[in-house]
Design goal:
single chain; Gyrase A, domain 2; 323 residues
């Protein structure tokens, strides 16, 4: 999108802090072939994954449509954890389990054993320094802390550094200020990364969510479910839909349809992620998957052809302009 667009604003002035992520869960994959198995199922390379990085990845249907989006990392050489929205844990675990067959890999729900926290803002740096660590430099860098805890850097949201902390459920919460959940969610949306939820299962191929731009797809790895569709979209120039940030003066919900003023008879896109613009506001910041042609002229509306108008915002990374 045009770099002259306004940048998404911070939800509120804050040094950041920490919050529990109760709406997230974990799948554990253990065994000597755990990485090999996940490599065969997900859009990213897990066979060559080391102990100092995480992977953003998607799990696709045979038609290349995303069933889940997740962050995966190695706890050890033969154990991996996959973090994803809690409502997608059970169906993803069930479906993955169908394909384990004779692979030396055991899958289980680790949500109760490992707790996930969201950390954000400049307050994270001194907290890490007190433990003898520097802040991870780039998205998907992984830092190993005491007692098998790991800290993974996420894409920044509205210029705010953000992290996932995974630690034993019995460990004390980080000694950081409590971060408001709505503020965390707004920064998550403003990072330009959408997590597949129940309302958006099988709605998008990875490129519709800009997934390959965020490091979520490896086009050199071997086959996985939907790989042919994903590769064909990439190399045959058939990507006609992308995700972009918008502000709207109304509440927005994941899965809500969007309509274009010049073609009101059919939806032009769908809300992939949404949050309140700021505390107490009825407005929303949203990441929406949109037909590229709908960005050339006219206006986009939330929920119906005469719904609230969407105002484009600058993306935190480069996305190709409509051709």
């Amino acid at each position: 999108m045009n770099s002259s667009l306004p940048a998404p604003h911070l939800s509120d002035s804050t040094p950041g802090g920490c919050l529990v992520l109760p709406d997230w869960g974990l799948i554990r994959a253990s065994g000597e072939e755990a990485a090999k198995f996940l490599h065969s199922q997900l859009t990213q390379d897990f066979a060559l994954l080391d102990l100092s990085h995480a992977r953003l990845a998607g799990y696709c249907s045979a038609k290349g449509r995303l069933l889940a989006t997740l962050v995966g990392w190695k706890q050890s050489a033969d154990e991996l954890l996959l973090a994803l929205p809690a409502e997608r844990v059970a169906p993803t675990l069930k479906r993955l389990s169908m394909f384990v067959l004779r692979a030396k890999c055991k899958l289980s729900d680790a949500t109760d054993a490992v707790h996930l926290f969201g950390l954000a803002g400049p307050v994270v740096q001194p907290w890490l320094k007190a433990q003898g660590h520097e802040m991870p430099a780039a998205a998907w860098d992984l830092l190993r802390l005491r007692n098998d805890a790991v800290l993974i850097r996420l894409p920044d949201g509205a210029g705010m550094p953000r992290f996932i902390l995974a630690q034993d459920a019995q460990a004390a919460a980080p000694d950081l200020p409590v971060l408001d959940a709505e503020r965390w969610l707004a920064w998550d949306v403003q990072s330009g990364l959408a997590w597949v939820q129940g309302a958006t299962v099988e709605q998008f191929v990875p490129q519709m969510l800009n997934f390959e731009l965020l490091g979520g797809v490896n086009f050199q790895k071997g086959c996985y479910p939907g790989q042919e569709v994903v590769a064909r979209s990439q190399y045959r120039g058939t990507i006609k839909r992308r995700s972009f940030l918008f502000d709207v003066a109304a509440p927005a919900q994941i899965g809500q349809e969007l309509f274009h003023s010049e073609d009101p008879g059919q939806p032009a896109g769908m809300v992939a992620a949404a949050a309140a613009s700021k505390a107490g506001s009825v407005g929303s910041v949203l990441l929406a998957e949109i037909k590229l042609a709908a960005l050339e002229s006219g206006s986009l509306h939330l929920g119906s052809p005469d719904g609230p108008v969407l105002k484009p915002q600058a993306m935190p990374y480069a996305v190709a302009e409509p051709q």
